[in-house]
Structures are given as C-alpha cells and as structure tokens.
Amino acid sequence: MMPTAHRRLLFLVLTLLSAASILIASAAGSVTMNWSEWFAAISNSSSEQGELLWRLRLPRAAAAWTVGALLSLSGCLMQVLLRNPLADPYILGVSGGASFAALFGMTLGVAAGVIPALAWAGAMASILIVFSLARGEGPWSGTRLLLTGVVTASGWAALISLLLTLGPDSSLRGMLFWLIGDLSYAKLPYWALAILVLVFLACLGMARSLNVLAMGETTARLLGEPTRKLLWFVYLLASILTATAVSIAGNIGFVGLIVPHLMRLLVGSDHRILLPAAAMFGGLFLVFSDTLARTILAPRQLPVGVVTALLGVPLFLLLLNRARVKQ
C-alpha cells in the first residue's frame, strides 16, 4: 500500500495539474490570450475576451474535466465488475443506446439543448434492457451480463448505421462528431457534477468491498460480501457514470480504458486510492486532449475522441509490452 505521505503528495500534484490544465485550456485556442489578457478577461466578463472565457472556454474545460472523471471512474468499476482488464465504460451497450437516441433527435432536427436529455434517456433504456435480459435466476453470471451487453451494443450499432444511412446530409457531420466524441458545444450541467460527486462518494464507501471483489467472487462470498447485490450495484453505478458522460460529449474512447491501467501501475490496486487518483487524472487527461484538439489545427477543431485515440493507442500498446516483459 502507498505510504500516507506519498499518497498526499500524489493527490496534491493531481489537484495542481487539474487546476493548471483548466487554466491553460481557458487561455489557449484559435485566439490565444497572454496572462495579462486572461486576468483582464476574468475580471471583466462583458468584454469580448471575457465573453470568450466565461461563456465558451471555462465551461468547456470544466465539462471536459468532469467527463474524463466520469469515464475513468466507470472504467475502474467495469474492470472490477467483469474482472477483465479490457473492459471499458462502453462495453455493455450504454453508449449505444445514448448515441441512437441522440442521433435520432438530430435526424428529426430537435433543438441542440434537448440532445443531452435524449442521450440520457437512451442510455437508461439500454441499462434496463441489459439488466432485464441478463439478470436471470440463480447466481450472478458475469459471462451472461457481458454477452447480453455486447449483443445489445451490436443491435444499437445496427440502428445507428441505419440512421446514418437515412439521415439528412445537413446533420451528418454533427452525427459523426457525436459518435467520435466532441466537446465543441459542451456545457457542464450541475446535475452531471452532482452525479459525479454522489457516485464517487458511494464508490469510496464500498472501496473495501471492491478490493475484495477484485480477488474473485468466491473469495468475496467467503469473506461475507453479498456478491450478487454488490455486483448489480456496481453495474448500475458504472452505467450511470457512462450515461452522464455520453450525454454531455458523445462517445469519447480510451479514457475509461487507459486511465485505470495507468493509475494501477502508479498507485496499486487499492480502490481507496485508485478511485480518486483515476478520477483526477482522467479529468486532466481529457482537458489536455481537448486543448490539443482545439489548438493543433487552429482555427479548425478536431473531435476530442480523435485525440484520445491517437494518444491512447500507443500508450496502451506500451502498457501491454510492459506487462509482457514483466511476465
């Protein structure tokens, strides 16, 4: 277990890096501010640069941090739930339901402000479908849950392909950006932040149970854990986290897969430390990725999902190679 002094230092560093990433994101872009202009914009929200800072960049950076934290927490829970290091927040079809509902709304031409609500509703529908079909009788079956989720995700993917085929050309670009993951019009709704805080506290409260569960269901049962209820509760929390993230920014890949692995290498597998470390690092990682997406080809902006994939693929291959060398 990481010594207390090292743990405090780690959280202090992650907190400072998170704050720095948001400050840099608010100053960088197609119109770059120096720090004197930034301080002037902070104090005068009615100026042109103040409008840019308060209405666009700071809300987008806050949304990016929150989405990164949501996906990282969900990834940690999914990997415990399925006992599979390749599990990510999207593996059980939650994102498919959200994406289908959001794209269906775009096809109908609904207002942009309604899209997150549609995505949330679609994600909840997918959760209910998977839960109803996978629950069954008898003991918990992670295999049944995984198969049900994968098949449900495939069904949503087919419906999404149908929408892309039949949808109007005018909305096709926005639909593709949603599928890739995009923060261009993201705002941070207060309910999303409330969900992050509440689920995070719930996860911390059952961190010991997650540690036991990671050893295997049989071990957890022998140590007195109500494994069936606990596993379904973990699934519900992970799905809510994923649904919230997707409703804000679409399908941003690799954050929920890579960040838990990196943090396990750094802090170990104790979820009392892993969960807060993963949430904070996931937030600053996505803010950094979104800043790159806005600036690397400025004034053009890339979908942030492209940047997380370009960063995540080589990073994941390095992690796999490290694991192979240790064996």
The ordered H/E elements are HHHHHHHHHHHHHH
Find the count of extended strands (DSSP E, 2+ residues).
0
Q: CATH-wise, what's the superfamily?
A: ABC transporter involved in vitamin B12 uptake, BtuC
CA(first)-CA(last) distance: 22 Å
Secondary structural class:
mainly alpha
Helix share, percent: over 70%
Short description:
Helix content is 77%, strand content 0%. It has 327 residues and is mostly helical.
Overall description:
With 327 residues, the protein is mostly helical. The protein has one domain: ABC transporter involved in vitamin B12 uptake, BtuC (Orthogonal Bundle), CATH 1.10.3470.10. The protein has 14 helices and no strands. The chain has helices spanning 4-27, 35-43, 48-82, 94-108, 115-135, 142-166, 172-180, 190-205, 207-213, 217-222, 227-249, 255-267, 271-295, 304-326. Helix 1 runs parallel beside helix 13 and helix 5 (115-135) packs antiparallel against helix 11 (227-249). It is globular and about 65 Å long. The mean pLDDT is 86.
Descriptive terms for the model:
ABC transporter involved in vitamin B12 uptake, BtuC; 0% strand; 327 residues; 14 helices; mainly alpha; single chain
Layout of SSEs?
Elements: H1 4-27, H2 35-43, H3 48-82, H4 94-108, H5 115-135, H6 142-166, H7 172-180, H8 190-205, H9 207-213, H10 217-222, H11 227-249, H12 255-267, H13 271-295, H14 304-326
Helix pairs in contact: 1-3, 1-13, 2-3, 3-8, 3-11, 3-12, 3-13, 4-5, 4-6, 4-7, 4-11, 5-6, 5-11, 8-11, 12-13, 12-14, 13-14
